[in-house]
Amino acid sequence: MAAILDHRSNHLTDTLTIPVSSKFGYLLYPTLAVTLFLSAYRVVLKDYHGYLALGPGGTPSTFAGYLKVTYLRLFTIKDPFQPPSLAKATFPSNSYLRELPRRSGPRPTVAGIAPHRQVDQKCSADLHHVLRNAIHSLAAAHPSLIRKGTSCFEKNGLALFLSACAQSDPPDSTQYPAPSHLNPTCANTGEICHLHATDSSMHITLHPLDAALVLASGWGERHPLAGCSIHGKCLLPSGFVMVYAPRDEADVKTVMEIVRAGAWWVGGVDLGGAKVP
Questions:
Q1: What's the predicted TM-score (pTM) here?
Q2: Contact predicate 123/131, CB 8 Å
């Protein structure tokens, strides 16, 4: 009988006694959860501050805007240096640029989606004004074709828009049902390009072959969402390219030639006076 009672006493003691490993478990799991939370918080906070550091863009500089951009990362293109494909029905059929000088030196570092910005190799304030004045001069030289305004894509920043196109109807009117611009950009506003005040880079929508030449010559890269479809909606044209900030006045001339190529794609207009053949 004593043996039986002793056995039951030992069994009860074992039942009520928490193993050492379980005691540690009660402390380990909450500690691990807090550690993981703090680590994730630091990563998100650093990423959020990086987003804010890019400055104003097409998405509000708020945490809600950051969450939207974080979601958009799921849809970005794999290689921003891969040119857009050339469709059979591309019009204008020929590109604008015949050649570009090779951009010397390494490419700048680019970050973000909206905003999408160059984070180094930025030009001086004086050179920024040279570029800005060149944009104003181009618009002034073609008042019947070009107008200035605020970017439709970015909701801020100087932009050029095409007011008219070379032909009202491309060859295949069934595929192109009487557009006001040959290749619509942002809500069919005819936006050719816009300038970023924070880094002096530009976004320009280009003919696929012109985009390929710009990429190959080292002057720019495609936007991470260029040509991407999100829930059945294409947010940006496939030829939507960032052109890097100029480093000297020779670079400004090259950048402005790329801007003229943008006008060619949007409306088939050669700002030197020619029209689509």
A1: 0.81
A2: yes
